[in-house]
Amino acid sequence: HLGRMGSLEAIAETKAELVDALPESGVAILNIDDERVRQMASRAKCDVVFYGLDAAADIRATDLESHGLEGISFTLHHRKRRDHVTAPLLGRHSVHMALAGFAVGFQLGLAFEEIVAGYQQPNIQLRLLLVPAINGATLLDDTYNANPASSLAALNLLEELDARRKVAVFGDMLELGGFEHEGHRIVGDRASQVVDALYVMGERARIIGEQAMQAMPSLPVVFLDDKPGLLDALRDGLRDGDLVLIKGSRGIELETVVSELRNERDEE
């Protein structure tokens, strides 16, 4: 929302209104690892529960490991208890979602075993999905939305996973305001360290491709203007064993690309 609100501080101030609105009988569950969120605790009239990796968190994870497509594992610390947790969540960054869930569950009176059982449900991975595609490739569908932080997290996940070839497809990241050029450039730098091939679609995403080429001149980068061109390029370029991250802002609607490639695979 940077394009509309101007700064991360302005966004944090608006989010803090949720904490302001909590009654004394409520509970504010806050990510201690995010400085802006951590500071919201001073505005709470109610009890505050912190979760995260920081040693001061009330609900904390240590020994965090990513097991690729098998999910993550960590040691959960809560009320002088330690429990080993495995969850079918993709990427190390997803530990914060797991910890937030534990925090809410404990506040609602659920036992550890009940919360863990919930994390074993097959539909828990809501926003980032593995999708079989044409030519024997697999898509890592992260098309729900995109900003620099989530794009870096997705690239970190792609780096953790095993594949014959790692490919990234990026559309524009919208609503970044004055951070637009820098945000796309940062993603391009990281992509150059992770991927074997890169596809970028749109004027803003072009910055990702240009930066990746500058950082890694030997990296194959394909620049596209629209989704039909992107689809044609992927049909020609994807190979058996490719793992393909597809990511862009919600307004770009790259989920239609995922759907096309998936349906064409089913036709094969």
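[next item in queue]
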Amino acid sequence: MSRTSGPLVRPTAAIAVALSDELKQASPVEIISRARQWAPAGRLAVVCSFGTESAVLLKFVADVDRSLPVLFLDTGWLFKETLAYRDRLTAYFGLTDVRTLIPSASALTMKDPRGDLCLCDHDACCAIRKVAPLAAELASFEGWINGRKRFQGGERAELAAVETDGRWLKFNPLARLSRDEVEAVFEGERLPRHPLEALGFASVGCVPCTSRAIGATGRNGRWSGLGKTECGIHTRGLVTNSPL
């Protein structure tokens, strides 16, 4: 099921199911390699938050192809430590195409002129600062790779190796990894840690929506007490959920 270059096409659910079945026992490197084989040249991207577990995903990406485009969402609300971690991991793995995406200035002026939308409407803030910029950048791609894992729970508990997401195929190479296996990659490869992890941050997103979760793991500390677990970029149909 290889692809050749040509017009952008919308992958079908049948393709996703077939690939997911093929890769259900595959390693992260095998899934990334298969994604690279499936997508025409230049039409596969990696989406990475450069959060506390991102080094594991990027390690496997670098093992396959350091030139794959890596898309990073700088919302304007990130910790300075995350921006520094992006730069450190980019150099550490020799990544050659890390793209920093920012929100539309006009959208911010129109919908968040005072910069306080994050305090009153978290979903709208995520839509402007994350969902819309990513949807716009992904317009020229047919597939994307991300670092979600089943052990993170919630909507991620039943992740397949491959799924459809609007007009894209989404590849989940780390889906099957356990928390212990992720930790083993960090330890075995001596990967750099996010600077805030040592300060008690189990998961790191935007400053207003991230809190310390001492002794916790996974995504604890994100949107605490709000009943919110996802920013929106992993909600099915990224295009239809974008305010573009």
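[queue empty]
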